[in-house]
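Dear colleague,

Following up on Tuesday's group meeting, I ran the structure prediction for the two-component complex that the binding team flagged. I've pasted the input sequences exactly as they went in, so you can double-check that nothing got truncated or mislabelled along the way. The structure tokens for the whole assembly follow below. Feel free to forward this to whoever is handling the docking comparison.

Inputs:
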Amino acid sequence: QSALTQPASVSGSPGQSITISCAGTSDDVGGYQYVSWYQQHPGKAPQLMIYDVSNRPSGVSNRFSGSKSGNTASLTISGLQADDEADYYCTSYASSNTWVFGGGTKLTVL
Amino acid sequence: EVQLLESGGGLVQPGGSLRLSCAASGVTFSSYAMSWVRQAPGKGLEWVSGTIGSGGVTYYADSVKGRFTISRDNSKNTLYLQMNSLRAEDTAVYYCAKAEHYYDFWGGVYWGQGTLVAVSS
């Protein structure tokens, strides 16, 4: 039950675009279309931003998009805004009947 | 509106037990799988356990297998996590999360606000 691999931090200026990667294996990210991304502000519960690799829940801005290539998933945020500053976690269903998370990426809006 | 409210957290000594509850409202509870996810202070999210809509099938992370038991009472719209043989490394905020399907316990839009479990002597 290894965690997925994310960069510890990324940063960008308002209006710019950033991409957060999430590396897994063929037993999780690469094997299923069940990658999700969560945003978490300090002291708050996680909020779902992307599900099933590239789908946005109702109410989530279209500035957030997801994709996958092989064993690596990506979250792209375009038109960065101050409120996007948060921790972001990728997750995936895994073949061992588990739900695995990445270590989290801290996004700083400069 | 779907709401999930966790309770039962607190301070417990190593080796002790605690039972967490997650009361759901605004949803046909028995139609959805549920999970528990935890977050140690200053750390990332870690899935703990999941169960399908009926509660008849359960899943666990290796780190808690044999010590924790997930269950649900669909007549009370409540999810539980019985935690035994607690260790210092179990200290975390515990969230319940509602999945989007009956069988698939992962993912989901709705999470509770969490309950803090602190294991310390």
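The interface with chain A takes residues 35, 37, 44-47, 50, 59, 61-63, 95, 100, 104-109, 111-114 of chain B (CB under 8 Å).

Cheers,
M.
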